[in-house]
Amino acid sequence: MTDLLVVGMAYFEVFVPPHVRPAAGEELFVDGIALGLGGALNTASVAAALGLRVDLCVPMGNGIVDQAVVLLAQRLGIRLIPLQAPDNPAVSLVFSDAQDRAFVSSARLDTLQQLQTLPSAAWVHVPGLEEADRLQPALQHARQQGARISVSASWSPRHLARLASRQDQDWDLLVLNEKEAQAACGLAADAAQHLAGAARSVLVTLGAQGVAGLFDTVPVRASAEPVTVVDATGAGDAFCAGLIAGLVRGQSPAAAMRLGGGAAARILKQTGGVVMDPQTMAGLLEEDQKWKH
What we know:
This protein is α/β, with parallel strands linked by helices and 293 residues long.
């Protein structure tokens, strides 16, 4: 059984330079256009760099993006479990600066619904509420088989608006950022209490203010590591990966949250949320004494 199974979309990301769009018929040359992979690969790549055994289940065809996903998974030692899909099923334009990011995306989310059962894993992570909704039967089955289910909210106003009414606690962990928490229940400070019906543990990432929420009904809080932000893309996914890595290793929730914060801090120093080089996370695990409770 693997430590972590990540299920979702693997995006090809184009980071749009902050320049005025050229007039019709003209061409504007810039110093560079950053490209990357993202989505489910964010959490999977960070978790693999932190030493977890990771499986990645994503829709794939035979396009350029799909081949890039295969190569990166091989480089990082991630076992890839492809779902049949059209070529290049998920693409994002990313508008990013040091403060925040926004996306224009295309994704064949319907292809996730072909999954009825999932491979065995200690944890299953889904990077988005809409993805979790489409995977509901498979996630329920996985939980019945003993897996712990983690969901990060992502931006989906329709699904965020429904969170507060959920009372089934289908998930073990729900992670939202401040904007998502506000959309779900009005105030980020009240999110953990208002959303406790959706998950046993609810955490809200607050940027430079750290992370706060409830872990198994116990209030928890962790400060953020000071960092000069290059790009915020994937920081929440990195936090989830570090948190799960700590819990898999038997750390206390507070220690696991600190590991998640450390992973997020490293991702904030780069463009994009995917670990291309496992050495990006080098040194975090060696600070184990800092995390012991």
